[in-house]
Amino acid sequence: MPGEFEPVGAVWLTPPVNDETWPGCFDQAKAQHAAMCEAIGKVVRVQRIGVDHDWPVNDSWVRDYGPIFVVNQRGELACHDFVFNGWGGKYNAEYSEDDITPRRVAKLLNIPVWEHTLVLEGGSIDVNGAGTVMTTAQCLLNENRNPHLTRQAIEAELHGALGTRHVIWLPGGIVGDDTDGHIDDIARFVDPTTVMAVAAPQGHDDYAVLSKNLDALREATDQDGNKLNVVELPAPDPIQYDFPADRFGPGGVGPVPASYANFLIVNQHVFVPIFGQAGDDRALAIIEKTTGKTAIGIRAERLVVGLGAVHCLSMQQPAGQAGESD
Fold this sequence. Notes:
By secondary structure, the chain is an alpha/beta fold. The protein has a single domain (8-318), classed as 5-stranded Propeller (L-arginine/glycine Amidinotransferase, Chain A). It has helices spanning 26-41, 62-65, 86-89, 96-99, 101-109, 137-140, 151-162, 207-219, 280-291, and strands at residues 8-13, 45-48, 68-71, 77-83, 113-119, 126-127, 132-136, 166-170, 187-191, 194-199, 229-234, 239-243, 252-256, 264-266, 269-274, 294-299, 314-318. A hairpin with a 4-residue loop joins strand 6 (126-127) and strand 7 (132-136). The radius of gyration is 18 Å and the shape is globular.
């Protein structure tokens, strides 16, 4: 699996289709998603499920249910189809259409697809393209994913599918994250040796867990035993949303998982969720300086009401040889 910072040939997106995901702000979320699609489409080919490809879906979180692309040494493209169980069976919702999306993509692109019995979401892993995969114990070791597998068995599954040989385990994710601690809200590889990790000030809701994550990263090594270059990324100010009562619960004011780490790297650009806060510009500047790429802010204060943002709503397709006819 290439690092996201390696050449990208296309980006897959699923525009919002489920108004239950964005209660009280569905139209605003659709508008912010459309603006994101337009911005990404200026620098790479965009593939929109439900628009460019008339496939049914249950929701828009293509990062988690979409194909996880890999390439071989000849640059040929293939993908993996892991089991998607709705983030551990949450919400009593239907996800069967989402779960078969990788097979539909593989058929369209005319590439091999490997079907797995492992429950895994794309947002739970991040790779450096050189042999290391990063994840959280809170998510991958959660009993609602693969309770029959040990840590060692899960590591073996990851290595076999992703071409990795080393795992960095971080403790967990941020407040408001319903995915049980996806890595793409807390720490991201931006080159084979550099990780950008979110840090929060004392008094912030996420201070304790983010401090533990940073401590773990500073002790961690890559696949060759070398220390990582860890760059701190600020945490946004906490965002609360007044969720209306619905079939999933009584509603009420609660946190949403706003994070500048939920960015998408596309070739020489980084698309970063911003939230109309004073810290937006600082986060963009740090990302731009660290990556050497152009950081583009994507307004996401309504998108994140769905409990995800730019990275959660996208899946990069590495540059590689595929058999598609168009």
